[in-house]
Amino acid sequence: MSESTQAWVAAGVRAVIGAHTQAQDAGRTDDIVALYTPDAVLELPGMEPLQGHDALRAAFKGWEPTQPQLHLVGNTVVASFGPDEATAASDVAFFHRGDSGWTVQVVGHYDDTFRRVDGTWLLQRRVTTFQA
After folding, report:
1. Phi-psi group of 99: left, alpha or beta (phi > 0 → left; psi -120 to 50 → alpha; rest → beta)
2. Alpha carbon 78 to chain centroid, angstroms
3. To which H or E segment does residue 73 belong?
4. Furthest-apart CA pair in the chain: how many Å?
5. What's 2's DSSP letter?
6. pLDDT in tens, the chain (132 residues)
7. Residues in contact with 23: Cβ distance below 8 Å, sequence separation at least 6, in sequence order
């Protein structure tokens, strides 16, 4: 695969991660769900995997912020490249703003699988782990 194709895939993957983070922190549930394939799976510690748009919509609707929050996602490494599939790993820190200011709530890691559908990169699977 050419370097320009790898750069194109990496840019698409990072755009989805960024859009997801921004929409989640703003409580835009439908925008989040639109970033997943219809059969996507979201795995979170302590929960059964969520599969499909309906399950994702219900979950993210329940997680809509009631106070300012911020997910900082970084150190993203796109590990595999293909014209229609890619994987990436990222670190994430979740902050919540309360009466005493911003505090870190959790630090974790995303292992993501992406698929290109009709020319658009979408999340196929996200496996989230938390670090103590």
Report:
1. alpha
2. 13
3. strand 69-80
4. 51
5. -
6. 677 788 899 999 999 999 999 999 999 999 999 999 999 999 999 999 999 999 999 999 999 999 999 999 999 999 988 889 999 999 999 999 999 999 999 999 999 999 999 999 999 999 999 996
7. 29, 31, 32, 35
